[in-house]
């Protein structure tokens, strides 16, 4: 990545990490994908049950592949017929891998979900949540983060899943009530009551949507 962008990202990440810390969450800075992978694996004890909530960022840094190949018990909902049972099992997992649709400069997490399995597991259930977040998702405030989630993440995901929503056709949120909408549940995480549960790894890269 460009040296000047890296310098800017490094400084901004420290502000985000300070904000996360004030909200009882842990933040980490990774200068590249390899370092992000190393930090993530250090946060996952051997023998842990691990599952994922549709985090493209975790795939992009190689974390999912590393967990599948490592000394962990990976709960893969895509590999079973009963996806509902797999989603429910995620709530009792040791570690939940995720990302966020947007994060504010002072450490507030913003997520939108269709089935709500991802946002509900972030909010409660798994003992630990490990988030991989590219610096492209950092926004000035909650309002900007919500706009990013609705106008960048949601349309992109709707297109990725081949859904028939207005945003998939226009590229922008139309505040729809389409049967295919993935903007069903909104989660704003401004504080974690449980210390050492939510861990956010900020990566000096463009990751996810």
Radius of gyration over C-alpha positions, nearest whole angstrom? 16 Å
Quick one: how many beta strands?
A: 10
- The fraction of residues assigned to DSSP E strands is 15-25%
Within the largest sheet, what's the order of strands? 1-10-7-4-2-3
Residues in helices, as a percent range: 25-40%
Order of helices and strands: HEHEHHEHEEEHEEHHEE
* Mass-distribution shape: globular
Terminal Cα span: 18 Å
Average pLDDT number: 95
Output the structural class: alpha/beta
Largest sheet, strands/sense/barrel:
6 strands, parallel
Give me the number of helical elements.
8
Low-confidence stretches: none
Task: Write the topology of this structure.
Layout: H1 3-22, E1 26-30, H2 33-42, E2 49-52, H3 56-60, H4 63-69, E3 73-74, H5 83-90, E4 95-98, E5 102-104, E6 109-113, H6 117-123, E7 128-134, E8 138-139, H7 142-160, H8 166-170, E9 185-189, E10 198-203
Parallel strand pairs: 1-10, 2-3, 2-4, 4-7, 5-8, 7-10
Antiparallel strand pairs: 5-6, 6-9
């Amino acid at each position: 990545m460009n040296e000047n962008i890296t310098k800017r990202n490094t400084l901004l990440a420290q502000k985000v990490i300070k904000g996360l810390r004030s909200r009882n969450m842990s933040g980490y800075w990774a200068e590249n994908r390899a370092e992000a992978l190393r930090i993530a694996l250090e946060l996952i004890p051997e023998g842990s049950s691990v599952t994922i909530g549709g985090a493209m960022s975790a795939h992009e840094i190689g974390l999912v592949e590393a967990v599948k190949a490592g000394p962990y018990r990976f709960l893969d909902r895509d590999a079973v017929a009963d996806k509902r049972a797999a989603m429910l099992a995620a709530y009792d997992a040791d570690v939940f891998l995720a990302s966020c649709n947007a994060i504010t400069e002072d450490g507030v997490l913003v997520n939108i979900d269709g089935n709500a399995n991802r946002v509900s597991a972030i909010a409660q259930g798994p003992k630990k949540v490990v988030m991989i977040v590219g610096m492209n998702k950092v926004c000035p405030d909650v309002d900007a983060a919500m706009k990013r989630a609705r106008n960048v993440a949601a349309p992109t995901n709707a297109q990725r899943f081949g859904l028939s929503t207005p945003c998939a056709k226009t590229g922008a949120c139309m505040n729809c009530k389409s049967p295919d909408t993935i903007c069903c549940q909104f989660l704003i995480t401004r504080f974690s009551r449980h210390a050492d549960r939510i861990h956010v790894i900020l990566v000096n890269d463009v990751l996810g949507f």
